Amino acid sequence: MKNSMNILRRSVLAGSVAMMGLSLAPLAASADELAEIKERGVLRIAMSGQYPPFNFVNEKNEVVGFDPAIGTEIAKRMGLEVEIITTAWDGIIGGLLAEKYDAVVGSMSITEERDKVIDFVGPYYNTKRAIFTKSGSDITSVDQLDAAKVGVTLGETHEQWARDQGYNINTYKGLPELLLELDNGRVDAIVNDSIPVMLAMKAGQYDLATINDPAAEPIGAGIAIRENNPDLSAAMQKALDDMMADGTYLAIATEWVGGDIR
After folding, report:
1. pLDDT tens across 222-259, in order?
2. Per-residue pLDDT reduced to its tens digit, 57-80
3. Which interval of the chain is the signal sequence (predicted)?
């Protein structure tokens, strides 16, 4: 009977995971991975590389920004080197479950749906959903988006939110492309986390206007790891907590985003 129940549970979970476009890779993992990572000496972290100033590729072809700085410091405090892997955002959870990397340090919003198949360390910062148009646009309220073309990043929570509203959407690989398409008039509005777009506006890169979204609530961004890794989770959380306590976190946040975003 016990084996039958286990098979049934696995079958139900398989159906749920398949609906999310993910694999069953983590079901095979029974031991905490921290010891293996320590033996390897390298923490492999993933991000899109398409989300400035949180993570992006600079002119030297280096992945830089707030996320890699946080991930590198966490690895250092765990006695590890870091390897940064860039991958498409819409497949990043699947890659984590397939063990292509150990963690996602890429500004991933903590959601109930994601928490069903992965675990989170953190949150390590907070932001909220925001809607932007070009300055001077006729679109000034959320109600007008029903008749607009809305740009979102493929695989982000904002894509699902826009679909749930029934909006006519275009999907893009990352924030640089999203902002360019808005600037060129190919979409009428974009939906994104507030901080990176506000920073792009502050830097004078884009002349945009914010549409008030009364329903938007703060969202925590967490570090994603595979389930059943309490030792790894505790070690990463301790490193993060220590960074926040000793001022290192604030120094990184000030360098990349202009201030504290906890």
Report:
1. 999 999 999 999 999 999 999 999 999 999 999 999 99
2. 999 999 999 999 999 999 999 999
3. 1-31
Rg (CA), the chain: 19
Q: Which of the listed CATH numbers 1.10.8.60, 2.40.30.60, 1.10.1370.40, 3.40.190.10 matches domain 29-126+219-257?
A: 3.40.190.10
Q: Quick one: average pLDDT of 15-29?
A: 41
Contact 109, 9 (CB under 8 A): no
Helix axes 66-77, 230-246, angle to 10 degrees: 110
Find the helix or strand (DSSP H, E) in which 16 lies. helix 2-19
Q: Which CATH number fits domain 128-218: 3.40.190.10, 3.90.1720.10, 3.40.50.1460, 3.30.420.40?
A: 3.40.190.10
The label of the residue with tokens 């306590």 reads 245
